[in-house]
Amino acid sequence: MRTATYFFIFLNLSLAVFEEPAVYPLPFLVTSLVEVLCLLVFFGRLTHFAKVTLRNVFWKDTKNICIMVAILLSLTDLAIYGVLGIYNVRSVRWSRIVRPIFLINFAESRQIRRAFRSIRNTLPEITYVFLLFMFSLLMFSLMALKLFGERNLQTAEGLPYFKNYLETVFDLYVLVTTANSPDVMMPAFDFSSWYALFFIAFVIINTYIFMSLFLAVVYNNYKKHLKVMFGGLNCD
Where is the signal peptide (predicted)? Predict the structure, then answer.
């Protein structure tokens, strides 16, 4: 039964690959029938669990409530999407975001819930580092806007260079990953090679310092909470 539950959870999550917009699109009828089958299996598993559990215990368990709500939301969204499709009205399958609930809340997923709780407990402790990183990113974006925005520079595609603050924030955020390096620097570098110092300072502070610090804080806090949970706390 555990293997069957995991199989249908995996099948349900895999539908995102075949539903519009999809990598390998399949007809709506096919994906909807598979999803209904998965939901019936989930409902049957929940019904079986209710039969072997005291009623007051079953209804007090938030995991069971979450599964029932996820099933209802998925069926409602499936019906609405199908009706709108009949009348050629485009819509979005918003219930996809509830599918991981099945992976987390079934009784067989105890280890996944432990990992999820560790992540949840870690989030408040990394907030300060994240806020510092965002502050640094916003300040560097403001400096870039003042340094380059008034010089009428253009990118290689002929677009304005660092003229819009939000676009500047996004470009420098991508630069943290070095995905747009050194392209994002070249218009300023062509204007004056000294401007390269701005981008070098940005990469050193945000990519090498903040990202390393962020990773260290996440790892240490996650490991700490995971040790506490495996040390004897009740994870259910």
Answer: 1-16
**Interval 145-182: pLDDT, tens:** 998 888 888 887 888 888 889 999 999 999 999 898 88
Answer yes or no: pTM beyond 0.85. no
Of the candidates 11, 5, 220, the residue with the CA atom closest to the CA atom of residue 112: 5
* pLDDT tens-digit map of 35-63: 999 999 999 999 988 888 888 888 888 88
What gap in Å lies between CA 187 and CA 191, rounded to an integer? 6
Q: Among 38, 6, 32, which Cα is nearest to 20's?
A: 32
**DSSP single-letter state for residue 164:** S
Hey, which residues does 154 pair with through a beta bridge? Answer: 160
| Alpha-carbon span 124 to 186, nearest angstrom | 38
Distance of alpha carbon 28 from alpha carbon 54, whole angstroms: 39
Are 202 and 175 spatial neighbours (Cβ–Cβ below 8 Å)?
yes
Sign of CA dihedral 148, 153, 157, 163: positive
